[in-house]
Amino acid sequence: MDTSSLLQQLHSLPVVASPMFLASGVDLVVAQCKAGVVGTFPALNARPAAEFDRWIDRIKIALAAHDAARPEHKAAPFGVNLILHKTNDRLQEDLEICARQRVPIVITSVGNPAEVVKFVHGYGGLVFHDVINQRHARKAAAAGVDGLILVCAGAGGHAGRLSPFALVGEVRRWYQGLVILGGAISRGRDVLAARAMGADLAYVGTRFLATPEASIQDGYRQAIVEAGTEEIVYTDIFSGVHANFLRSSIKHAGLDADHLPARDAHGENFGSESMHQSKVWRDIWTAGHGVGSINAVLPTGELVRQMRQDYAAARAAL
Question: What is the pTM of this model?
């Protein structure tokens, strides 16, 4: 696969679904790909590594069956997110599984992707790397990635601080490769806006939380539907890195979201007993600024269909 063929396949809705910790599983990825957008999941969602191998088997079997039944509407490719940080002791094993399974797209985060690029290019796959600023973008480009994922202000999870207008514009001054833009993208017209700014593809995460296929609690799904932008809290208290979380889940953990405890010199936080019994991501829920545009739980196929219609309508209106 090359980036040109990927863009051609996604022309009617240029979207990559972002890999969401715990939430993105086999059911969601398969539904996304069948609907015509790139479905992805973090390798670490499948535990242990042997389960990761089985997840890929299940996805490939389901997509092959879809393509055989509907050759005129073939599924989009899928991707896997690999964390490059030294704390990920599964990286090499997961990378070898990706190579053996010939995973078409590998999304890398938190580290230098140079070695992964060599490995994945060796079997013909594509590598996209998450960045939040110019320094990270230039390092990833120098490593030979096939595309940059610009994670801007308003994205769910570990989001950057920069406006998409600023980051896309500055990156496009020197980078001619594939650009994927993330941050508060929930509607088809948001996707069109990303394209107008200079991105090739939109990176959509939070909107897919409000689907039955997402592997999350029903309470989390409902909180996404009910939330507006005032519900989003940007803090480093929970994971040590700034991320966006839902205020309601912070309150449920026994904390005042407007007066969060400080972290000490070792990065530890001080909080209530209920906070220490809560787990980040599982009990303290992440979401992006795009929640204000979400008002219903929809099956993934229907959600993508509506986004595609909205994208086309917005394009025609302009």
Answer: 0.93
